[in-house]
Each structure stands twice: as C-alpha cells, then as structure tokens.
Design a protein that fits this description.
Blueprint lengths: L3 H14 L4 E9 L4 E8 L6 H4 L20 H11 L4 E6 L3 E9 L11 H10 L1 H4 L2 E8 L2 E6 H7 L10 H16 L2
Parallel strand pairs: 1-5
Antiparallel strand pairs: 1-2, 2-4, 3-4, 5-6
Helix pairs in contact: 1-3, 4-7
The protein binds adenosine-5'-diphosphate and magnesium ion (MG).
C-alpha cells in the first residue's frame, strides 16, 4: 500500500523535475479538527496556465514518455484525498513556482497511513549535495512542530557534509527524536 510518505516523495520529484531550488514541505496533523494536511511549495518553473486544469488527469504528463508509467502522481494523490474526505488543490504561477495542498480527514478509514516520515525526510535532506536544493521540512502534530533546514540541521549534527559516512544515520536518529518530542 502507498503511504502518505510515498505520495509526498513522489510529488517532490515533480518539484525537482521542475528545477526547484527551494522546496518547503509541511505535514500537518490536527486531531481536534480531524485534519491531515500536506503542503509542498516549490520555486520551480511552474505549470503553464493551459495545463493547469489537466495536471490531475490520469496519464497527463509533460515529461517525455518512457517505459515507466507516467502521469499518475497527482491523479493518485487526488483520488486518495477525495476518498479520504478532502481534496487536492494546485496553485501554480508559470515561471514562479507551484504549491500543492492535499487535505484529508484524519480519522477517515481510507486515509493511508503516514508511513516513515523520518526515512523520507532523511532521504530528501541527504540527497541535497547532488541536486543543490534548499529544504524546509516540517511536521506539525496538534500545534507542536519541528523544522529541518539544510544548514541548521547540518550544524545541529556537527556534520561537514550530508555525504560523510554515518551522516544519514545521524540525521535519521535526530528526526526520530524530534518526532518523539512533538508526539508528547
Ligand atoms: N511541482 C510542479 N512543478 C511544475 N509542474 C508540475 C509540478 N507538479 C506537477 N507538474 C506538472 O503536472 C504533470 C503531471 O504530474 P504527475 O501527475 O506527477 O505525473 P508525471 O510526474 O509522471 O508527469 C507533470 O508532467 C508536470 O507537467
Ligand atoms: Mg510526478
């Protein structure tokens, strides 16, 4: 089964494909208001106005067609949101960037499990060196939050680089600790 972390990871590939340099991800859980919200904001090349109404369509893609299945990322997320009592909003300004906001009812039986947020965040942050992306990764749980940013997190961990041996493990452990903090 596709977890919400899998969906997020997949949608971030769109931002990377769009040449984004800054990507802001917010995962927000608000139990009192029965809300699960995911927001991905990028400064990539955006979506052409004439494509905006079609990007959620199954198999719509502007990527060159290869052997892999394409055009499903937004369609699957949209279907998941609708099944789970929410929706998927896409706000994009051509040449400026895109914001994707997915909402679901937190307690809905069709809402997929959240999946492994620490693993997903650690993968994104430690891929930084190759793709030169500045990340802001946040998880909010009933108003308590943590934020990861490339530079600050690297300093927190006393790392020279996210590629040095053991960096990914240290990062993963840090995120696990931050997860524990917001859940208390
Ligand atoms: N963050 C984004 N920035 C720019 N274009 C995007 C973004 N997300 C989606 N798109 C556009 O929507 C299309 C459909 O996205 P998606 O459903 O994930 O399928 P795919 O990634 O296989 O093309 C993409 O081909 C692209 O044109
Ligand atoms: Mg995609």
């Amino acid at each position: 089964m596709r977890t919400l972390s899998d969906h997020i990871f997949d949608l971030i590939q769109n931002s990377i494909n769009a040449g984004a340099q800054n990507i802001h991800v917010v995962v927000e859980e608000d139990i009192p208001n029965n809300l699960f919200k995911i927001c991905i904001k990028d400064d990539g090349h955006g979506i052409k106005p004439e494509h905006l109404s079609r990007v959620k369509d199954t198999f719509f893609t502007t990527r060159p067609r290869g052997k892999r299945h394409v055009g499903l990322g937004l369609a699957l997320m949209d279907a998941t949101c609708q099944r789970s009592g929410g929706n998927l909003a896409i706000d994009s300004e051509y040449r400026r960037g895109t914001t994707i906001t997915a909402t679901m009812k937190h307690d809905h039986t069709d809402r997929p499990p959240i999946g492994d947020i620490p693993d997903m965040f650690a993968s994104l942050m430690s891929s930084t060196v190759e793709n030169k992306i500045l990340w802001t990764l946040e998880h909010i749980y009933n108003g308590k939050r943590y934020t990861l940013k490339n530079r600050a997190t690297k300093d927190d961990l006393n790392l020279f680089s996210y590629t040095e041996p053991g960096a990914r493990e240290k990062l993963y452990e840090l995120i696990i600790r931050k997860e524990e903090e917001i859940h208390h």
